[in-house]
Structure formats: C-alpha cells, structure tokens
Specification:
This protein is an alpha+beta fold and 478 residues long. Helices cover 43% and strands 11% of the residues. It has a six-stranded mixed beta sheet with strand order 5-4-8-7-6-9. Strands 1-3-2 form a three-stranded mixed beta sheet. A hairpin with a 4-residue loop joins strand 4 and strand 5. The two termini are 27 Å apart.
C-alpha cells in the first residue's frame, strides 16, 4: 500500500464488492467504519478517494489484507488472470503483466467477466476431451460448477444462516436441556412437524443414506451412517422443516439459470444451515480459538466428524468474531478433487488439481494421522497446511475406509494460533515450494511433474536426461 503516498486510490468497485461479500448495507458498513453513509457512497462511486485512515479501519474492522484492495480488484486476482492468459488459446497474443495488473485494479467487474468466460471455456474443453469418445462433446458449465463458484463468491460465509442456526440451537437446548443434539432434534421434529426418524438396514435403503418419506412423515436413515453423519442427516431435515421459506428465498436470490442448479444450491445452503445448528457460530468460534483450532476437541465438543468440523472452520468470517481464514480441499486416492472451499485467499489452481508436492496426497500413507507442511506458492506467499484421511459417508461394496483426504491451510502468519503448529520453528521453517496444476506451473526442474506447462515448448534431446520427465524451455521467463 506504499502507493497511497504517491497517488490517490479510487477503490470504489472493490469496496462495494467487499461490502456485498460481507452481506452489509452501506449504512451498516458506514457505522462499522465510523463514517457517514453519504461519504461511503461517494467512495463506492469513485467520487472520493480512499484515505489511509479508512484503509486502516477496514483492515482492523474486517480483517482485510490491504494488498487485496490495493493490488487486485476482488475475486479476479492478478494471478488468476495471468493463469487464464497463459492458455494456448492466447498464443501469439502475449498480454504484458502491467496490463493484467491494470485490468484487475481499474476494471474489476470486467476482469471478473473475462475470468468467468474463461472458466466456462476451460471447463467445457476439459469435459470434451474426457468424454469425446462417448458423447462427442459436453454441454456448458455444470450445475456443480455454478454452485461451487457461487459459494466461493460468498467466501463460504452466509451470516443469515449462521443467525438462524444459533437461534434454533438455543431453542433445542431450552426444550430438552442436557440431551444430545440428535435426541433434541428428533424430539422437535416429532413434536412440531409430526415427523419420526427411523434407521433401516443398508439392503433396505439400497443406494440412499438419507431419504424423506412425505406420505408417512418419516425420515429414513441407513444404518451405515456413523453417529456424526446420522446427527447431520437429522440436522438437515430439521433445517429444511423449520426454515424452508428462508432457504428458498436465499436460493432464488442467487439467480440460478436452471432448475438443477437451483436444487443443488438449495441442498448446499441447507447443508450450511444444518452445520450452523450443529455447530452454532459463537460457541464454535470461541471453542476453536480456546483450543488452538484442535479438530479433535472440536469433534468431541460438538459431536461431529473431522470433516464436518474442518468444513465449518472455513465459514468463520463474522466481522465481530472472525476465525483463522482457512482453505479446504478434499481429494480421493486417485487425486480427484471433490471439495474446494476458502474463507480467505485460495492458493491453488482453479483450473486443475493440486500440486503433488503438497502432502495432502501423502496423507493416505498414514491413515488417520495428521501431517503438516509449510508451503510457498509462486507468488511468494507462505502457508501452513495440515491434512489427514477420513472415511467416506456410507459405503458400498468397493469402499475400503480412509479413502478421502482433507487438507486445511492458512497463511503462515496465522500458524501461531494453531495447536498443529506447536513445536515447529515458524521463524525459520522448512518450506516446500509448490505450484498450481502441472500444466500451468513453471517450476523447473521438478521430479513430480506430471505434464509439461501448456505455454512452454518441450526441450528434449537424446544426450541427457533431466530429473523432470518433461524438461521445457524456460527462456520465456527471462
């Protein structure tokens, strides 16, 4: 932010985006910052520059990294735009770095629009390559893609659902104090909604782990579900029974382009509300801070699984009670990514998998044990990460257990708050450099490389052999 001494900063678009991400009105944000609504309105319309004093208030009030305001214009960051422009699609049309920076800084909405177009193109191209032999090509962006992008656009934070979850959790405790959550939720479902819960054998449930029978007013659960998964299934049904109108309104406000996307989004939002009932924001955030974000103690305190607690950690963005800004990634043993969430910066490639140097993948070698690592991304940012395996919910004839790995991470500056970092030398740590997906990574040499970068020519001869299976000409970096 040194540039503020030399030139005026007009950050209206970025400030407006931050306010909307926090689900705040202009009046509410103005009150938080100690300025008038009209002054804030002028700033958002770029009629007034942002003062250094206001930037400091923003950083203090909302835990904003000032670099994200002064350098990169919102969700469409410089690194994401550079990643998109590295695609062979733009071969012969090099875009200088200063133009990418200017686009991200001065025209954030246009940058986001360009990035959205590229995402749709890249996703479709990947599906076409994988499915051409069967279908001859795939359709446009999938409902899962749209829901994932919408949730990430909100930084995985829905304050309205957190508030509903806390209220409902308090009501459950008042009605049946001292009982387990599942007992409390079952009692309320029966008393208020005439809905009973039954557990049935897996051969009766067949493919379903949870199924609602509206005719007999029954929630049917598979006996393959463990206690935490069963409690979450009951929480899901309770959330839907109590707050269907609010969930529907929030889904409609998202403007889903088709019915499958709308339905999938509503399920995702209901899952979010279920987590907020099981793990109410205030108690969960306080316990996380008091225990050093010890996942084991969070599991025991709230009766949830490791994955449920880890996922909840990525949602703690309430301005008045903010948690460590975590990112989360879930992979299977084949490297397929099935979850990707972040409450803060997200260092991994949006358009591919994770770097094989990250120990998320090696967690499968030590099932059930947490492995830690400090990594550095190509932009020089350093991150503390930890990962462990978990079991998949339910099972079929091919499930072996510990077949998923959950990776959590945060910027290294937050690591001192985590119990998992105790005993490590954070002042002079051992650091592993990583990159984005191999096809977008310029790190060389790298023995773990699985594919050459798409924008660098291969450099292969029969006189020598590199540690990398795909040596490439790195002159383009000069």
């Amino acid at each position: 932010m040194e540039a503020t001494a030399d030139r005026k900063l007009f950050l209206g678009g970025r400030l407006k985006r931050l306010r909307r991400d926090l689900a705040l009105t202009q009046t509410a944000m103005a009150a938080d910052l100690g300025v008038s609504p009209s002054y804030l309105n002028h700033i958002e319309r770029n009629q007034r520059p942002v003062s250094a004093q206001l930037l400091l208030r923003l950083a203090d009030t909302y835990d904003v990294d000032l670099r994200t305001l002064g350098q990169s214009g919102g969700p469409a960051t410089e690194s994401e735009l550079a990643e998109a422009f590295a695609d062979p699609l733009f071969q012969g049309l090099p875009v200088p770095r200063h133009e990418i920076v200017q686009l991200a800084e001065d025209q954030p909405a246009a940058a986001d629009a360009l990035l959205r177009l590229y995402r749709a193109f890249a996703d479709r191209r990947a599906r076409d390559r994988a499915e051409a032999d069967v279908t001859g090509g795939a359709g446009d962006e999938t409902p899962a893609d749209r829901v994932r992008d919408y949730i990430q656009g909100r930084r995985n934070h829905f304050p309205e659902l957190d508030a509903l979850g806390e209220t409902l959790a308090d009501a459950l405790e008042a009605e049946t104090p001292g009982e387990s959550f599942e007992t409390q939720a079952r009692a309320r479902l029966l008393a208020r909604h005439g809905l009973a819960v039954r557990t049935l054998p897996a051969d009766v449930m067949v493919e379903w782990t949870r199924r609602y029978d509206p005719h007999r007013r029954r929630l049917l659960l598979s006996d393959t579900l463990g206690p935490s998964s069963r409690a979450f299934a009951v929480a899901f049904q309770l959330a839907l029974s109590e707050h269907d109108a609010e969930l529907t309104a929030l889904t409609d406000a998202a403007g889903a382009p088709d019915e499958p996307t709308r339905r999938l989004l509503k399920v995702s939002l209901t899952n979010t509300l279920a987590a907020a009932v099981l793990m109410p924001y205030g108690p969960f955030q306080r316990t996380a801070e008091e225990t050093g974000y010890d996942l084991g103690r969070l599991q025991a305190r709230f009766g949830v699984s490791y994955e449920q607690a880890a996922h909840r950690l990525t949602t703690l963005s309430r301005p008045t009670a903010r948690g460590v800004p975590f990112f989360l990634m879930r992979v299977d043993q084949a490297g397929n990514i099935s979850k990707r969430f972040a409450s803060g910066a997200f260092p991994f490639s949006r358009f591919g998998g994770a770097c094989p140097r990250w120990r998320l993948h090696s967690a499968f070698r030590t099932p059930g044990r947490i492995v830690t690592q400090i990594i550095e991304t190509p932009d020089g940012q350093r991150w503390f990460t930890f990962a462990r395996t978990v079991d998949r919910q339910g099972h079929d004839a091919f499930t072996e257990g510990h077949d998923l790995a959950i990776g959590l991470g945060c910027e290294l500056k937050h690591a001192h708050r985590l119990v998992h970092a105790r005993g490590l030398d954070l002042a002079a740590p051992e650091i592993t450099p990583i990159g984005p997906a191999c096809r977008l990574c310029h790190r060389h040499p790298c023995a773990e490389r699985a594919a050459p970068p798409v924008d660098r020519p291969l450099k292969v001869d029969d006189w020598s052999k590199s540690v990398s299976p795909y040596p490439f000409d790195d002159a383009a970096n000069a």
